[in-house]
Design brief:
- By secondary structure, the protein is an alpha/beta fold.
- The protein has one domain: TIM Barrel (Alpha-Beta Barrel).
- It has seven helices and eleven strands.
- β5 and β6 form a beta hairpin.
- The longest helix is centred in the middle third of the chain and has 15 residues.
- The radius of gyration is 17 Å and the shape is globular.
């Protein structure tokens, strides 16, 4: 029973939140066996999000639950602006993601030089501190790609789990979920986000888990989800979650 709550129909501005584009995602989700499919463009493209299109597609394809979400780039001090910007909308869920540290976009290949100023664990500590801060805002239901700071294989000296644990504890205290983001397999790190040890600790702490492909094109919806479910079962997890009107629902796996 698959759910894919992390997709980007607008593909960072390369396509549009249109009926034709979203329908391609829906058809792929149905073909992959998704029970729930969520559209979660970045908040940068919020002006182009049209909830009515999702409503129309839901009526046309009742065999799949379509959810409307948004991936919000968390930056410290912007909490009030985020709430104000999102107030007119009724989302099923919000994904809080950290893509910047100190104004540096660390997960973009055009800004690789930024890694040169970091040594040891400092980058990881700063990143996970921001994740914890995002969790404490109470704005989000899901933390996106929880250790995406690994994207280019930058090494930390300490155990990854030791550095991630404070963020996991903040996520648990906030009652949030994390996602297994399968797109990491197609980045230099070549691995799901989060790493297995982080995922296992999240399960031990009782943090719910959902799935996200980070698909920027329909062909990648629910990509590698069978492997993600296998990983969840290996660590003892028996369910995944989805969201409707920001209420958490649970599906067995």
């Amino acid at each position: 029973m698959l759910v894919d709550l992390h997709t980007h129909p607008s593909a960072h501005g390369e396509s549009s939140f249109s009926l034709d584009t979203l329908e391609q995602f829906v058809l792929r989700g149905i073909a992959r066996g998704c029970r729930d499919l969520g559209f979660s463009d970045h908040d940068l493209y919020l002006p182009g999000v049209k909830p009515g299109i999702v409503t129309r597609l839901q009526a046309k394809y009742p065999q799949i639950n379509l959810r409307l979400g948004l991936e919000v780039d968390f930056r410290p001090g912007t909490e009030g602006a985020i709430r104000e910007k999102l107030a007119p909308f009724s989302f099923d869920y919000l994904i809080g993601s950290v893509h910047e540290v100190g104004g540096w976009i660390f997960d973009h290949p055009d800004y690789m030089d930024g890694y040169k100023k970091y040594r040891g664990d400092d980058l990881y500590r700063e990143y996970f501190a921001l994740v914890a801060q995002a969790a404490r805002t109470g704005i989000f239901q899901i933390i996106g790609h929880p250790d995406v700071v690994r994207v280019f294989g930058f090494k930390c000296e300490s155990r990854l789990l030791d550095l991630a644990r404070p963020a996991l504890e903040a996520i648990r205290e906030a009652g949030m979920a994390i996602e297994i983001n399968t797109n990491g397999r197609y980045k230099p790190v070549g691995d799901f986000y989060p790493a297995r040890e982080v995922l296992a600790e999240a399960f031990r702490l009782g943090i719910p888990v959902t799935l996200g492909s980070d698909a920027h094109e329909a062909a990648n919806v629910a990509r590698d989800f069978e492997d993600a479910l296998d990983l969840l079962r290996q660590i003892g997890c028996k369910s995944i979650v989805t969201f409707a009107k920001k209420q958490r629902l649970e599906y067995p796996i």
